[in-house]
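Aggregate trends can hide what the representation actually does to any particular protein. The sequence in question and its structure tokens are set out directly beneath this paragraph.
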Amino acid sequence: MISQIDMAIFIGFIALTMIIGLSSSYGIKSMREYAIGDKKFSTATIAATIVATWAGGRDFVLIISETYNNGLYFIFSQLGEVIAILLVGVIFAPRMGEFLNNLSTPEAMGSLYGTKVRIISAISGFMVSAGILAGQLKVSGLIFEYCFGYPEIYGVIMGGILVTLYSALGGLKSVTFTDVMQLLTFGTMLPTLAFCIFGKIKDLNIIINTLSTNKLFDYTEVFDFTRPKSVYFLFLFFWAIVPGFSPASFQRIAMAKNVEQSRKSFIIAALMWLFIVLTLVFISVLILSTNPNLDTKNVAKYILLEQSYTGLRGFILAGLMAMVMSTADSYINSASVIFIHDLCKPLGFKIQKELIATRIAAILLGAIAIGFALSGGSLLQLTLFASIFSMPVVSVPFMMTIFGFRSSGTSVLIAMAAGATTAAFWKINPIIDVPAAVPGMAANLIFLIGSHYILRQPGGWVGIKDPAPLIALQQERQFKWKKFKENLQNFDFTKFMSKNSPNNELMYVYTGLFCFFSLYSNMATISHTAKLAFPLFFEFVTPSVLFSATALLSYPLWLYSWKKNEVIEHVVWNLVTFYGLVYIGFIFAIISNFAPTQVMILIINLILVAVLVRWQWALVMIFAGAFVSSKVANIYFPGALASSTISLRLQIIYLLLLIGSLLIIFLKPKQEQESLLEERIDHLRNRIVDQEKEMISALSLKSEFIRNVQHEYHTPMTGIMSMSQMLYDSYDSLTDTERKDAAEVIFKSFVRLESFDSNIATLSKLNRSGYELKVEKINISELIQERLKVCQKLYKDEAESEFILNVEEGIIVKGDKYYLGQMMDNLIINAITYCKKGSITIGLEKVGIYAARLTVKDEGIGIPDNELLDIFGEFMVSSKTRTPSGGRGIGLALCKKVLEIHDGSIFAESDGKSWTKFTITLPLR
């Protein structure tokens, strides 16, 4: 039993979660919305639901107890699940574009292989969900036993009723809410519990003693695959590393609005799940070190009731119940949809009210799962039992389908039968002790490929039906890799030092002062014992730091020739910063045995360094400082390490993780935003300089210019003037948000004005006889990708569409890079402006050996058929974009003119409603 405070926290949290979760699902009217929602979930939300689905309450008990019982054997196999999630994001998701509109795996399989395959897949999905749900309900029984003292059997029944009703009445939106709540709650409480247990350990060497002497952590035994136990866990790793595509997992993929969002969500989820697994493993190792004689079944109970305190215990139990609810309702939701949509309907049952029937199916699944949970068996056994229903039956043919292997329904049915039979046989009479799902999957694969070729079935390796997302991803990776190699080849040390050094004279002086303060703070607060133990160190460090700090303090007095050579000042600043703040900070922390004051000074030093330089260089300096200082201390200050080597290493690792996480989570986005802002400023500055030169000669091309110019200049100028006046008059009374909004209006008005000026000036220049082209060889493939990146950055708020890039690499043309780039900018910006949702497809390919074809297609508002020729005229605007607030009629006219002077052509196609396609042809000269 727990205290009344913990009980109140537990009951209140569960009640609040149910009320808010069910209210968030109000208004669901169709089974599709019940199953996969409205596809308006953010990437972070989907990642949270993926982690919450994986991180069930079962996993908390399972990972802690099995790590306690099997050590590195189980840790090794459990990391397979992390890799499995990562594989979905990196390999599988980019190939699953054709399945995003399916509600479930059985529907996807049935659409390719027929009704029988769909029905078997549905039964498989329903049963595996019941098995996984049973594991969660078994944990709910333990939770109710801990909280209220009820026998486990009553806890299983109560937990089953609770999560079944919640999922049946809620739908995916309530499931998603629970997932997010679970991740937030448990993501906070789990590290808190770990530090609570860690803080109770007085001698940290007992942890290392456990890791170094306990045979469960002896890697020579663990990875000796001549031993039966090692072989078992090796196959358990193979089982874990294969994505099962369970009903809930597929549902998470189908929730995404496109392949890219699904890919990112799974990659983020893999990192989050790795953190949770390592935290649970760390907790288990701590308990094994301090109390190695516990019964495995009681390890979780001991941690919850004995190692936590009032308040924290209630939140942990609530978070654990939230884990149970989030995973359970995910599987109830997805499996009930499968039962109605993929089993009952294909069997011919006529269901008029699908939503009500789906909720009844959810209740049926909950009842079956309660029966499984009460049947006995450990959590690991229940997990492996559940996998038998899915992985040897559905997972293998579905994964082969994703990779582009297609066969007939006959071959798939043969493979399913072989996999199920092998798994069942292995479960009853195993030849060797390995999870039955593994040989079942092997049999499925062998019979699938064998029956396909022996029976000469149609299909084979036909490829992916929708390769565009995969091709775009591959091209993006190739582009990034090529840019990375170019950056290495063109590395400029002077520029690098400049980016990682202050550009203000005062910062040199302030850095020198801070080195003084840091040294004096360490000298004044370090123990007298340390001073007596290492007198030579203090005799050396004081003058060396003072000398280097003085070098920065005297920066204003440096010779002009020194200052003129910026490399010298930048190198000196980086060396002094590394030595005086990073290296010396670590040395003081080590010789003081990580005294709190020295650690605090070190962290302040490292944060200062991280703020002053780019986060990548800061990480290099910090890790280099830790490595060098530990090596120097090991050689010259052995006394500092002899007493508590293990504790020291743990604290250094903790510090590095803390500072590294700080840099990546907080400073990385800020510095990336600053870099983006610098790019925008440079881009706009260059364009403004060009416009200042060209606007002098810009003349009216048609009489309509007079009518357009008032609107095109007056509208943005009004925005700039009004917002500027408001900022000037009311700056102090405005909130930060209001000031930011006003600045955004000014910036957008300026971009619009500048775009109009640039197009007018270029069009005017090209209409004169005296223009000159700077003809050069241009890699048009790279230019397209570069201009797309720029336009996406400059129009980030409007660029909500999905970009599909299908660009043939290495196409070279001769022309003026500036004008061709401006033409591409106009086409891309035009697509972004009139395609608020949907996709924008940019393609480039060779046409024979003499020409290249560029296409830009958007799923926007379209252009009427009778206007497709007129829109390339100067100041001609489509009737669908001719509004009081837009449409200049310059961009497409400029595109046509640029192509004319390059001996190219452009034409437009549209259905007048939902898409427009521009096709450009350029000669290969």
Summary: The first strand starts at residue 405 and ends at 406.
